[in-house]
Amino acid sequence: QVQLVESGGGLVQAGGSLRLSCAASGRTFESYPMGWFRQTPGKEREFVAAISRSGFRSGFSTRYTDSVRSRFTISRDNAGNTVYLQMNSLKPEDTAVYYCAASNTGRYFYTPDARYEYDYWGQGTQVTVSS
Q: Fewer Cβ atoms within 10 Å of its own Cβ: the N or the C terminal residue of the chain?
C-alpha cells in the first residue's frame, strides 16, 4: 500500500514557475513508476508526465504529454520517497488540479500514461495560472 501527498500548488502568473512535490509512504518507493495527471472541471483527468522505477543499473525513463514537453520536468528522489514536477513557462491552460500517482507495474524503464495503469493516487493540489 502506498499513500501519496502532493504539495506545492498555488497561484502564479503566466510565464512563472512552480515545483510540485509528491511525498510517498512505504519502503519500496523506488520500485514504483510514478506519474502526474491533471484535471479541470468537466474534463477527464489527463496524463502530464511519468518517470520509471529505478533502472536495472542506473537511470530512469521519462514521458511527457506534448503540451508540456520542454516546459515541465519530472524527477524523483528515491532516498526521500518524493517525486517532483518542475513546471516552467506556465500558461493559463495549465490551470488544473494536479494529481500524483503510483503504479504497481514493476517493469524497468516503464512510463505508463493511462489512468488505469496506476493503482494509488494522491488527493491533488490546485495550480492556477493567471494571464
A: N
Count CB neighbours of 38 within 10 A: 22
Which amino acid makes up residue 28? T
Whether residue 32 contacts residue 104, with contact meaning beta carbons closer than 8 Å, is answered with: yes
pLDDT tens profile 51-63: 999 766 667 899 9
How far is CA 39 from each of CA 46, 52, 84, 100, 121, rounded to the nearest angstrom? 6, 22, 18, 12, 13
Q: C-alpha cell of 28?
A: 519500496
Provide the Cα torsion 117, 119, 123, 129; round to 10°: -20
pLDDT per residue over 92-113, tens digit each? 999 999 999 999 987 888 999 9
